[in-house]
Structures are given as structure tokens and as C-alpha cells.
Design goal:
Elements lengths: L8 E4 L2 E5 L10 E6 L9 E7 L14 E6 L5 E7 L10 E4 L2 E2 L13 E3 L5 E3 L8 E2 L5 E3 L6 E4 L5 E5 L5 E7 L2 E6 L5 E8 L2 E7 L4 E6 L5 E5 L5 E4 L26 E2 L5 E4 L2 E4 L4 E2 L53
Antiparallel strand pairs: 1-2, 2-3, 3-4, 4-5, 5-6, 6-7, 7-8, 9-10, 11-12, 13-14, 14-15, 15-16, 16-17, 17-18, 18-19, 19-20, 20-21, 22-23, 23-24, 24-25
Length: about 325
Amino acid sequence: MQGAGRVQRSQAGNGVFDGRPADECGLGSPFSMTVSIPAVPAQSGTTGYGYDYGQTANPALSRSQLTGETTTRSGGSTAASAFDGGTANGPGNPTTLADHSGVFNADNQNVANNFAYDGNGNRGYLPASGRANTYDPENRLVNYYSGAGTFAYGGDGQQAYLQNIGGQRTYFVYDGDQAVLNLYTDGGVIHTTTFGANGLLSDHTTYDVSRFYTFDLSGNTCQSLTSAGTPNYTHLVSAFGFSRSSGQDLYDGMGAQFGYRDENTGFFYLLGHRFYDAQFGQFMTRDPLGYGGGVNLYGYVGNNPVNESDTEGLQAPAPVFNPGGPEPQPGQGYPS
């Protein structure tokens, strides 16, 4: 442990998480993660993280946003990130995220790649492209242009069912915020999902197929295992959610330990009430909490996905680091 109760080093069964000393990283953000997967040695290795704190010439720019990620896993790779906004409370839109670039308007909407938005701020595509996302009156995604299917929601805002392009529906039953049971239209069980005190444990289908999951220390799926411990697949997922492996099931990627679901849309994850786009590091719709969740209505965890998660799509960003400045109030960032 480090001062102020910050974790400096954490170890789990399949990896180690190291954090910078508190005087180097005001929020204790981890600077490296080492993962050991004996069954798939190529997926073992260390991932290092860099942040934009420590700018003593202009402390207002020290925000603890993730600016670099380098890994030796899966052959090795490096990804850089950059964000706009010249102050600690600026918008922080991801202008560069690995090999993707974003262009943002005054409403913090990404208008690159022919993205367009409706009057409620929901992201679709330009009509000229012939493709568009559609939303219900509550600004929830009901159809994705790729043809992945149709989504519907209950009165609590949680997803009620997913209908595939063949018309077959999968209904979801929840325990609190987590979907624990998937049903056919006639009530037949498709599979059950088990969560424990630390998150997702397993998934069991009616075909007597069980999947048990292991995670890295950011909650991203490392492996799916059979009941005998044999790997079904092994994954490497970047901090912002880009998967370097092919998808396999609902919980095959980013934040699966916390209940994030990949619903056959490519790089979109359902985080409770909103879909998150892992390619561009933003939500597709505005924050239902409005500006109470921060100045950027599309932002994800203050651009610090190594240190933060958002299981409901409603979390306010963590306080940014402003050395020597006043302490933040609960739910607020440091003033610039």
C-alpha cells in the first residue's frame, strides 16, 4: 500500500498490477500489469500505461488520462491516445485512440467517418450513406446499422430482449443490474449467468456447456474455460476495449467481470443503460444524467479506463489531478 490508502501493488491468480507511488500519480493509477497464462504463453506478458499527469509547467493539464499503452503480450503492440481540451475541466474528447482518429464539434460529438447525430444527440450515420442507427423515444439504441438485430427495453431502462435478424428473441432476466438468465420467447432457458462478490464467474447453457472466466486486473476477459479447465479461447483487450481477438460470446471482452456485454455489434458494449464504442472511446448517446455527469456528455470514465469502470453508463468521471489545488467535493473534479 501507498500513502492515503492507495494500492501500490495488487496480485491475482493470473497477474500482477503495479501502481505508481502517490507522489507521481495523484490518483494511484496503475502503471503496469503483468499477466501469466501458462496454457497460452504468447498471451502472457506485461502491459505498461502512461498518463498526462505530472505537467508541472501547466498543472491544469494534469488529468490522469491514459495517453499510452504498450504491451509485450500477443506479439507486442503500442497504442497512443490524445485528447482535446486545454484545461483540467476541458471536454477531453479522444482525438487519437490507437489507429482511430476523432473530429469533434462544439457538442463533443464525433463527426469523423460520416457520423451524424439526431436532434437528441444520438449517434447515427449520414443519410447519404444509406445506413443509420435508430433510437426509441428514451434515446436508447433499438437498431444498429450492421443488422445485428433489434433491442428493446423495460421501464427500468435495462435491456428487455435482443431480436436477431432471423426474428428470434432472447429475453433477459436481471438480479439487480446484472443479466443472470436468458430465455426464449416460450420461456425456455437459453443459459444462466452467475455473478459472485467480485463479478462474473460463469455462464451455463441448456446444452450442458459451461464457461468459466478469468480476467485481467482491469476486468477484461483473459480466458473462457471449460468445466475441466481447458481454454475455449484466450483474449487480449486494450484499456479502451479494443479486442485483438475474435468474439465468442456476450462476455468475451472489455469489462466482462463487471457485466459489460458485447452484443454482436462489433466494437459496441452495453454498459447498463448505454452503448459504448470501443473504437472511439465514447458513448453513442448523451449521458441521461445531463451535465451532472461532467461537461462531456459522451465521455467514458474521464479517459482513465485502467483505473475506472462504469457498469451502468451513468458514472461521473473521477477527479482529475491538480497538484497543489483544492480538494474536490464528492462527485466533482478538481477545479482548474
